[in-house]
Amino acid sequence: MSTNLARVVPALPLPVAGWTRGTDVVVVGSGAAGLMTAVALADAGRAVTVVTKGALGDGSTTWAQGGLAAVLGADDDPELHVHDTLVAGAGLCDEEAVRTLVAEAPAAVAHLQGLGARLDLDRTGRPALTREGGHSRDRIVHAGGDASGAEVTRTLGDALRVRGIEVLEHTAALDALLSADGRVAGLRVARISDGALVDAGDLHARAVVLATGGYGQLYAASSNPAGATGDGLALALRAGAEVADVEMVQFHPTVLWTGPGAAGQQVLVSEAVRGEGAVLVDADGRRIMLGAHPLADLAPRDVVSATIAASLRATGADSVFLDASHLGADFVARRFPGITAACAAAGFDLTREPVPVAPAAHYACGGVVADLDGRTTVPGLYAVGEVACTGVQGANRLASNSITEGLVAARRCAALLAEDLPAAAAPVPPRGPVDAVDPAARAEITAATTRHAGVVRDADGLAELAGLLGGLPRLIPGAALDAATVETTALHTVATLLTAAALARTESRGCHRRLDAPETRPDWQVRLVHRLDRSGSVHTRTEPVRLLAAAQVVA
Ligand code: SIN
According to the UniProt record, what class of enzyme is this (predicted)? Predict the structure, then answer.
């Protein structure tokens, strides 16, 4: 397939750079993947500058409740973790990448502990393990009960500070600086001050590592923090990189439902609550997951979200309910202190009553095409963590494989760049058309994407969405670029690719569910890979999935 599907912004109208500085590696983003990359690079003697658009640690990692998946239990086996990941991934995983992830996950957890992470331990002093959806064994390492991500951020943030690594907070990464032969040679950045971009400058570097997270804010309700707007994916695409699997947006099944007007980041109720025995019921108290999947309430996340969506369609209700009341109030409050408190703040008592929940956007399975060493299709540009699409997550990420992937990829990417830093390249002034999407269009983009490209989709809705995205107003030529315009342009880029891919993929698989094409089709066991040309036209091709001998595992 190589059709012109849609058009997006090919380059931003950049503010003039007032300064230039050099470093070995620029890391963009300060979640688990970015922080671990920076720490490991510094330990290898590389000069690193971290650029992050909020404060250090403002990314999605801090909000992660569940934990990190790793084979550590006496009854567990790497083959089981591989198998569970491939099954959840619904045929789109890259098996070699999955095997690498599983093999290196225990070392990544040990590295984190070595840096001082205070994991929850069992009576023998080893990491306590719990279970989440799609896992056949207890293998989720956690911290602070339900504050695993916050402990990862604290640990890596402290490690960064101890090493004196330079961090540019409240700084936007705008576009890559490219050499004449198309290599990434640095970044144009600008400080964000009250939404304006000020003090723009150029960071020259031999490698740029994107660790910018996902794009949950493309949807009205999400578990993601405000910064998850797909900036890194859009930047990479504009730099010439390929992106893939963008249509595979994972919806978390149990996000607290607080009413139809709820917008922005919502309270996540961890899958680990179901791992400890909570169940999903409808308004009449009927268990909706019984009979829907052999693993019932612990089915892979795409199955649970789709089953909830079907229940809501059938009943006309806005939410289903998560019932943990039979687990004992003391146990629930002790094991999940943060979630219990967040539910209480919204007026619900998780320890004693079923609480209303509904699916909300949670994780981008797709992203910038990269291997687990972070190499993208553009020399000098690397991507690790949620912004990357390594094939580990396939069409639906297995629970708690994400921080694990971020740490494994970060360690590998740092090892690669410690050993073999690309030669310095001289950036050339950007050429070609520039454009940006009017930030006033943001609410329309999120409302329409939520309506037409959510848990379930169909051709009519997606075609309407594609038409709307194609006709949105652009920034008035000459108007100053600001932070809201950068984010809105990124959201428009991601929405456009997502819609094009979701329209093209005439089947249902993993996180992509078409009401008008409900079957999983063997001929669609391919990935949709996109790239931009200089004018901003999107070109899409299909690529076979790399499977080893274990072959075609589909849930
Ligand atoms: C959760 O705690 O349910 C989220 C974990 C994850 O997304 O992997």
Answer: oxidoreductase
469 Cα–ligand 1 center, Å: 31
- In this structure, the strands spanning 526-532 and 537-544 are antiparallel
Q: CATH classification of 252-360 is 3.90.700.10, yes or no?
A: yes
Whether 201 and 18 have beta carbons less than 8 Å apart is answered as: yes
Whether the CB of 224 sits within 6 Å of ligand 1? no
Domain ranges of the chain: 23-66+143-248+362-419, 252-360
CB 397 within 8 A of CB 301: yes
- In this prediction, residue 548 carries a pLDDT of 64
The ligand 1 atom nearest the CA atom of 398 = 8
* Distance between CA atoms of residues 415 and 392, nearest Å: 19
How far apart are alpha carbons 244 and 368 in whole angstroms? 6
Enumerate the β-bridge partners of residue 528: 542
- CA 140 – ligand 1 centroid, Å: 10
C-alpha torsion sign, points 14, 16, 19, 22: positive
301 is annotated as an active-site residue: yes
The fold adopted by the segment(s) 23-66+143-248+362-419 is: FAD/NAD(P)-binding domain (3.50.50)
SS3 (DSSP) at 188 = strand
Q: Using DSSP, state whether 166 is helix, strand or coil.
A: strand
Instruction: Choose, from 131, 188, 274, 301, the residue flagged as catalytic.
Output: 301
CA of 18 to the centre of ligand 1 (A): 42
Asked if residue 229 has its Cβ within 6 Å of ligand 1, the reply is no
What does the alpha-carbon distance between residue 174 and residue 239 come to, in Å, rounded to a whole number? 11
Same topology between domain 23-66+143-248+362-419 and domain 252-360: no
pTM above 0.70?
yes
Residues 158, 156: Cα–Cα separation, whole Å: 5
Token pair for residue 162?
């101890």
Q: 96 φ, ψ to 5°? A: -65, -40
Whether the Cβ atoms of residue 368 and residue 376 lie closer than 8 Å to each other: yes
pLDDT tens track for 273-312:
999 999 999 999 999 999 999 999 999 899 999 999 999 9
Burial bucket for residue 96 (CB in 10 Å: 0-12, 13-18, 19+): middle
Residue 141: phi and psi, rounded to 5, are -80, 135
Give the distance (Å) from ligand 1 centre to CA of residue 154: 18
Mean local confidence (pLDDT), 383-408: 97
How far apart, in whole angstroms, are the C-alpha atoms of residue 246 and residue 6? 14
Structure-token match 């998560």, residue found: 322
How high is the pLDDT of residue 430? 84
Closest CA to 253 of 290, 296, 216, 304: 304
Does ligand 1 have an atom closer than 6 angstroms to the CB of 399? yes
The answer to whether 406 touches 385, Cβ cutoff 8 Å, is yes
- DSSP-derived letter for residue 482 is B
Q: Quote the DSSP letter at residue 352.
A: T
The pair of structure tokens assigned to 57 is 């640690």
